[in-house]
Amino acid sequence: MHAVPRHAVVRRAALRRAPLTPAGLSYAVLSEPKIGSSKAEYEDAWFVSAERTGSRASATRGCTVAIADGASESMLAGAWADRLTRAVGGLAGRELGADVFAERICAAAARWPAHVDRYLRRRERIGRPIAWYEESKLEQGAYATLLGVSFRWNPESESQLAHSADGGLRGTWSAAALGDACGFHVRDARLAEAFPLERSADFDTSPPLAGTRAPDRELIEARTVARHGTWLPGDVFYLATDAAAQWFLAEAEDGREPWREIDEVCDTGTPGDARAWLDKLRTECVMRNDDVTIVRCRLDANAAH
Amino acid sequence: MAYSVEISRANPTCFVFLLDQSTSMEDPIAAGGEGTPKRKADAVADALNRLLFELSLKCAKEEGVRDYFHVAVLGYGARIGSAFGGELAGRDLVPLSQVADNPLRVEERAKKVPDGAGGLVETMARFPVWVDPVANGGTPMTQALGQAAALVERWVGERPGSFPPIVLNLTDGESTDGDPSEVASRLRSLATADGPVLVFNLHVSAGQAAPIVFPASDANLPDDFARLLFGMSSPLPPHMLHYATTQGIAVSEGSRGFVFNADITSVVQFLDIGTRATDLR
Asked: How far is A69 from chain B (nearest CA, A)?
């Protein structure tokens, strides 16, 4: 049966908790513009979609989560980040590799000129035709980093579903990333894997970016970092855009457990608490002042049933 | 670490451009290719217009140009003062959004862009002009640097936590009011908490020497004017060196913000205001 994606989309929420399915992955989102920017100027994006083969929630077989960070130096960067997360996040659990990832980016880029045309028409309509600098800037295209992670469970084929040593069920995950939005796999209170960057010193202001202007599919594939693995019930994945990801890695390098702070805000905090927590980190220069998006994906013990 | 403060609308920095408008700027620069050699006055006016174009573009977003920078353009020749015209006439430090919105005029110019099939196609693009070439009078560079120092001193006093101001002098180096080294040194000694003021120089010359970009020593510079301007220029901070290297610009430790008969627009790209928008390579 053809999958019918269920999209759970809320943008610009400071804190959003949402169980995607009654039995499966649950996620929480922290998102906040940089200090000094308005909510309308937030240029990160996130998107989650799950595959369903029937009306019962327990039939969910896969889920994809995507985050993106629009490059500050480009115009319409937030809109481009949003389209990228829909393009990849909409995979709804399909395995993610560099080939699929590049295909989705190129497809989104192919649709981009129509978006720009609509934008230009709207500006004309509201009596604000674009200025010379916008004309030149739009020609330069929009850019964003992008990370997608797909989770699979309850597969039809027994070969895809293995039993862990303790007899529990587990599933698989696959990820693809272009740039410095990072994924962190935490198991048993330990950082099991970080991707695509592994050290806080690896961040700079020129990460590889997905652009709208004549993207080269082969080059995107070559620059994409792909990972895959298995997950166990209780595992948690954190997807974070660059400033939060760099903070996360720096904390882990110093022997701390940054995921605990995120969990505390996600589990007990209000949107105001989330904002206050991020503002504190940023004003203390522990975290770079930038838009922040963190999606926590918790794979519950009953996820595979 | 110096030069690490975020440049933002809440904490902008300033750019002071000094534009040599003296009579000696009537001379042609070294012929670099086909056609009639450009006058030095044309070269510096064109360089300044391109710098303002790139700076505006860098900070342009949907709602307009963000005021990450405040900009002054001081001309020096028969008179010293703001080289802005039109709506900005007579003003010194102007928020970048106002600079972008108030050029003297916007010209239509032909430019070549990729045609998507590996070739180039000519298209028309809007190009703003803020200053026209002027070549008149002496070269009071020392006084002009003094006025820049006054502006910068005011800025660092009012915004001691900002990224250090940048002073960029576009000239043929032939100062007629004494040795500008001392006042340049005073400028470089001004500082915010994030580091000393950066002084850069673009030298346009009639000399036939090859273009030189961000040299680390004055050993290969063609004349005394070039050596003077090199000596007045600040070393590029480490993050600028790093970025220049990633862009394939040949720099080394000790490279200074000095360019001889070459494009200096790249300094705009050296400044961090967030994630850079660049194609995959």
From this structure: 9
CB A291 within 8 A of CB A36: no
Q: Which amino acid is at B139?
A: T
Kindly indicate whether the ipTM for this predicted assembly is greater than 0.90, answering yes or no.
no
A25: closest CA of chain B, how far (Å): 32
Chain B CB within 8 Å of residue A220 CB: yes
pLDDT digits (tens, 9 = 90+) for A144-183: 999 999 998 755 444 444 445 555 557 899 999 999 999 9
B126 membership: H or E segment, kind and range:
strand B120-129
Given B9, B61, B280, which is nearest A216 (Cβ)?
Answer: B280
Assigned token pair, A153 = 């469970």
Residue B194, token pair as written in the block: 């994030």
Query: How far is Cα A72 from Cα B7, in angstroms, rounded to an integer?
Result: 12
Minimal Cβ distance to A36: which of B8, B125, B127:
B8
Note whether B275 contacts A143, CB cutoff 8 Å. Answer: yes
Which string of DSSP letters, residue by residue, matches A115-164?
HHHHHHHHHHHTT-PPPHHHHHHHHT--EEEEEEEEEE-S-SSGGG--B-
- The minimum CA-CA distance between B205 and chain A, rounded to whole Å, is 31
**At B191, which amino acid appears?**
A
Alpha-carbon gap, residue B100 to B65, rounded angstroms: 7
Model confidence at A240, pLDDT cuts 50, 70, 90, reads very high
Q: Which residues contact B120 (CB under 8 A, 6 or more apart)?
A: B112, B113, B114
What residues have CB less than 8 Å from B36, skipping those under 6 apart?
B28
Q: Which of residues 153-182 of A touch B (CB under 8 A)?
A: none
Q: Residue with structure tokens 């800037």?
A: A137
Residue from the list A75, A135, A206 with its beta carbon closest to the beta carbon of B278: A206
CB nearest A205 (choices: B10, B114, B276): B276
Q: What is the model's pTM?
A: 0.88
Strand ranges, E, within chain A: 6-8, 15-19, 25-32, 44-51, 62-70, 143-152, 171-178, 182-187, 190-195, 210-211, 225-231, 236-240, 292-299
